[in-house]
Amino acid sequence: MTSPAKFKKDKEIIAEYDTQVKEIRAQLTEQMKCLDQQCELRVQLLQDLQDFFRKKAEIEMDYSRNLEKLAERFLAKTRSTKDQQFKKDQNVLSPVNCWNLLLNQVKRESRDHTTLSDIYLNNIIPRFVQVSEDSGRLFKKSKEVGQQLQDDLMKVLNELYSVNQMGLLSQNKIPPQLCKLVLAFFGA
């Protein structure tokens, strides 16, 4: 007892179903693209941070060497002058003592910059590498889980489509929970 009106309504339902399935597939595909883009952006950011700190470590090391050379040059110069004997007779705040304090401060600064360079090279950069590897694994796992969920969703949608094709939905021969799920999914 298929009337033309019922046939037309069934065709409309099938067409609406097909449209909704296509929209869902498009949304799922877009979500995967977004996940891939996020992964690429984060990997690039971590690579940029590694490059930045590697270069900063080089600059700190060069600066440290230059400070050391500067201090040594002037320390050697003061050692070779007669100021050494004069220095022993001077007050604690004498210009020669201040000069030596300044040069020793520069040497300490040089060591501090060497330490900073070592921290960048031996602690920060390896940590960025580790975070990058961890992020890659997490994104890969997220993508696998997302793909599995998408596959399961499409399988359920196809099963529902098959059930609808057989007319079981209209005859109430399926469990009410599945009907509620279908109605909730399609917003009815």
Provide structural commentary.
- This protein is an all-alpha fold.
- The protein contains four helices and no strands.
- The protein has helices spanning 4-79, 83-89, 95-165, 176-185.
- Helix 1 (4-79) runs antiparallel to helix 3 (95-165).
- The longest helix has 76 residues, at 4-79.
Query: How many individual helices?
Result: 4
Beta-strand percentage range: under 5%
Order of helices and strands: HHHH
Write down the overall geometry.
rod-shaped
**What percentage of residues falls in helices of 4 or more residues?**
over 70%
Q: Which structural class matches the secondary elements?
A: mainly alpha
Q: Radius of gyration, Cα only, in angstroms?
A: 37 Å
Main pleated-sheet profile: none
From the N-terminal CA to the C-terminal CA, the straight-line distance is 26 Å
The tally of strands reads 0
**Residue windows where pLDDT falls under 50 for at least 5 positions:** none
Mean pLDDT: 82
Supply database-style keywords.
188 residues, mainly alpha
Would you summarize the structure shown here?
Keywords: Coiled coil. It contains four helices and no strands.
Secondary structure layout plus pairing:
Blueprint: H1 4-79, H2 83-89, H3 95-165, H4 176-185
Organism: Microcebus murinus (Gray mouse lemur)
Protein name: SLIT-ROBO Rho GTPase activating protein 2
Pfam family, one: FCH
